[in-house]
């Protein structure tokens, strides 16, 4: 299915740069590209960079020296004819070049349209297209690595054997129904169940792995809480400093919440340093405290910082009490380089109160922002607590995409019904319906069957030029 029209877009990010790339794809890509660039010789060699000049067709004046690379269908990223023109990265040049392409009949590419074409032309499947987007958006090298493996087709490769088993079962059962009188070997119920169970075990593992996969893709938020002067900012900086890979201010940060992101074990960890959450009568301050409490509750994980060189205070107890019900909690007994004045035994009464409520106990780490003691341990505990399934399987088998996880769950529901049908030895016609319900969601993951609205949702999140 090769598209009728030729699309064009600037494929490099907006703004000035050393280089900027204009990309064309479609049946007239070569013709349009060549008509605009003066080249030393024709025809253009494919997959080779060729130096040329771009002159404004109106004035005939040279605008820029460019490098042209062409790819002939189907050996291109979209499986169509593709031309990439590298100019100097001045927005005016790039825009003029694109305009000239419009004048010659190309049209502006929609966001993600190059990748959409790659999908529609069978060059990549849906999981690979989604991985392209994740790769572009990755913030850590680890995220990029996982996305790159998915771009190679790791998700589809993982599902393929299960689809094959289902197809095989379906074919055998259909044949048994259609040719009942003939001598088609009928599968034993036990054998059917065994096959379904193998699929179930594996899909369940993949779905479970999403807990960690989601974190890999989206990162984690850690709220740092504690009374003034216990060392929150110092710890925050320690945690950031070690791997200052991607420290960026997060948009939407409010005045009283400072958020920065660092890579911890390849996972983007967003630290929210919260201003004090003390009891207050002041109306304005109350709003601030409520907002802070909201951010703390929304975090994946909380770190309560205590100054262990001072006696345990009522305010510490109050904070601990407030944080306990919110979920996973780490407690840093900070300033461990100074003589300790807080012992775990002292905290026992505050913990005991919640124990009956069935809340998981907080984890304690002795830290020093001064010497760096315990910082590594805090990081490990963060990953352990928030991502318990981390490292359970090869990263290439990780499900990081909610759409995939939900479809696998749909598939598992079909499978459960199928198992029931097989256990009760219901007629094959009924079992078949369940098997189709199991297979269809898996097909939707890879895009073997798809609905246009799904494509819309996926590709509209791309940037133009991809
Ligand atoms: P925050 O108000 O909780 O953010 O606390 P800060 O990070 O501003 O620290 C308050 C004071 O404690 C500063 O003077 C820090 O230098 C000091 N401090 C922080 N962490 C440590 C630590 O681990 N050991 C020692 N000795 N001093 C610390």
Could you please describe the fold and organization of this structure?
By secondary structure, the protein is of the alpha/beta class. Among the domains are: 7-119, 2-Layer Sandwich (Gyrase A, domain 2); 220-386, Rossmann fold (3-Layer(aba) Sandwich). The chain is 47% helix and 17% strand. The protein contains 15 helices and 13 strands. The strands form two sheets. Strands 3-4-5-6-2-1-7 form a seven-stranded mixed sheet. The longest helix has 30 residues, at 189-218. Residues 242-256 have low confidence and may be disordered. Residues 226, 228-234, 334-335, 337-338, 368-370 line the site of guanosine-5'-diphosphate. Guanosine-5'-diphosphate is lined by residues 226, 228-234, 334-335, 337-338, 368-370.
């Amino acid at each position: 299915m090769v598209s009728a029209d030729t699309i064009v877009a600037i494929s490099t990010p907006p703004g000035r740069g050393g280089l900027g790339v204009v990309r064309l794809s479609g049946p007239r890509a070569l013709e349009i590209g060549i008509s605009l660039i003066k080249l030393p010789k024709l025809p253009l060699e494919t997959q080779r960079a060729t130096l040329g000049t771009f002159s404004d067709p109106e004035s005939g004046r040279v605008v820029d020296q460019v490098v042209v690379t062409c790819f002939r269908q189907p050996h291109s990223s979209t499986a169509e004819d593709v031309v990439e023109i590298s100019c100097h990265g001045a927005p005016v040049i790039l825009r003029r070049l694109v305009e000239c392409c419009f004048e010659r009949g190309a049209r502006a590419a929609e966001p993600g349209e190059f990748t959409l074409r790659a999908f529609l032309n069978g060059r990549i499947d849906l999981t690979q297209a989604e991985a392209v987007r994740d790769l572009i958006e990755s913030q850590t090298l680890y995220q990029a690595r996982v996305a790159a493996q998915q771009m190679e087709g790791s998700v589809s490769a993982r599902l393929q054997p299960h689809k094959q088993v289902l197809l095989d079962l379906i074919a055998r059962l259909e044949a048994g129904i259609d040719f009942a009188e003939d001598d088609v070997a009928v599968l034993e119920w036990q054998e059917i169940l065994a096959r379904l169970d193998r699929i179930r075990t594996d899909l369940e593992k993949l779905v479970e792995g999403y807990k960690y996969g989601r974190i890999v893709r989206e990162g984690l938020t850690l709220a740092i809480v504690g009374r003034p002067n216990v060392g929150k900012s110092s710890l925050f900086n320690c945690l950031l400093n070690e791997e200052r890979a991607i420290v960026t201010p997060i948009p939407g940060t409010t005045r009283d919440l400072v958020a920065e992101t660092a890579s911890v074990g390849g996972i983007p960890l967003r630290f929210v340093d919260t201003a004090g959450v003390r009891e207050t009568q002041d109306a304005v301050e109350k709003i601030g405290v409520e907002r802070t409490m909201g951010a703390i509750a929304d975090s994946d994980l909380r770190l309560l910082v205590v100054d262990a060189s001072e006696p345990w205070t009522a305010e510490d107890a109050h904070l601990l009490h407030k944080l306990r019900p919110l979920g996973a909690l780490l407690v840093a007994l900070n300033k461990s380089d100074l003589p300790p004045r807080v012992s775990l035994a002292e905290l026992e009464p505050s913990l005991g109160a919640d124990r009956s409520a069935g809340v998981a106990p907080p984890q304690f780490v002795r830290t020093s922002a001064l010497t760096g003691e315990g910082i590594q341990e805090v990081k490990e505990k963060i990953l352990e607590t928030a991502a318990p399934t981390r490292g359970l399987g090869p990263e290439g088998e990780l499900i990081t995409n909610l759409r995939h996880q939900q479809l696998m769950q749909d598939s598992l529901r079909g499978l459960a019904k199928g198992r029931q049908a097989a256990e009760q030895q219901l007629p094959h016609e009924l079992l078949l319906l369940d098997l189709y319900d199991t297979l269809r969601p898996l097909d939707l993951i890879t895009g073997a069957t798809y609905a246009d609205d799904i494509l819309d949702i996926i590709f509209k999140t791309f940037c133009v030029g991809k």
